[in-house]
Amino acid sequence: MVSRELVPGVYWVGAYDFDRRIFDELIPLPEGTTYNAYLVKGSEKTALIDTVDPTKEYDLISNLVKLGIEKIDYIVINHAEQDHAGSLPMVLEFYPDAQVVTNAKCRDLLIALLHLPESRFTIIEDNGTLSLGDRTLRFLITPWTHWPETQLTFLAEDRILFPCDLFGFHAATTELFITDEAWACRSAKRYYAEIMMPFRSSIKGYVERVRELDPAIIAPSHGPLYKNPKFILDAYAGWVSDEVKNEVIIPYISMHGSTAKMVDHLTGALVTRGIVVKPFNLSRTDTGELACSLVDAATLVIATPTVLFGPHPSVVSATYLANVLRPKTRFATVIGSYGWGGKTVETITKMLDHVKVELLPPVTVLGEPDEKAMLDLDRLADEILKKHKELNIV
Ligand code: FEO
What we know:
CATH topology of the largest domain: Metallo-beta-lactamase, Chain A
Shape: elongated
Helix content: 25-40%
Bound molecules: MU-OXO-diiron
CATH architecture of the largest domain: 4-Layer Sandwich
Largest sheet: 7 strands, mixed
């Protein structure tokens, strides 16, 4: 491992994880990830900002040793989750005089998760500052930039923002700064969908707060850094806005082909009406791609066969995920084929209690879809078009 210099006296000292392919046993990581930690040297004090995943703690320590860091005064923890705070016990052991600097809620979580003594903590308030001599750290307490204890740290003199998860994305690259903004935007959108979307209303305010800081560099704790913060701030402003796109997302499963025929027909009917459609066969869908598609689509059509008396378990799982991610989707409905009845539509619609959607009429059919079922799907496509036109997005 190596350290990297952002500006004189400020270093990336984190770890690459090229091999990691899943996070939380849920989120696929097709490009791996990084755990970014930063060292800030002031004229009087030295601060480490965040640590790394415990599986990479030796990389962090090695980076600090190679940089010749004999004393750390402060370890700022922006977020208690293990991928950023999990190496804290080892760092505290190596640097026994260091104080952990964080907010009270984060301290309580760190004590619960890592069993650290309370005496090692210095507590900061929102907008509080910490002097390193010729450099100053300012703290913004920003609950729900993933967990309720999260905060951002701003290095005032250099105008570098360390927002931990916020604005980051999962990609293991040795490029310190982003060079391909289109790629970064796609990856950051996926990350936003997976991690930040449930907290859209809070994040809306934080984006504006960050704009007021006018950072020269945004240095998140996953992925490469932004030397052009405007593009990610603008992208976030769009994702957290109430604007939706003329898109229909169709997560589906088909066991014997009937529901797939309905999805095919509805897809064609929507496309001929000028609507963008993204079907996701859940038997082979990347969860992150599905989440990403939900960021700004106007309509969600859940397509499922009835298994025994309810929806297919894979569809239940996808619906649960869509519900907890709380996308700004405006309309939803259910289509699918059944064999002898059941409560599929009722079960699915009840699961969407966190999403503020208008439910459109479902289309279900006994067995193989017939001509009437196809006409019902055409009518559903008409209804979706009408709703999208009312939003002026067609
Ligand atoms: Fe990257 Fe919420 O941890």
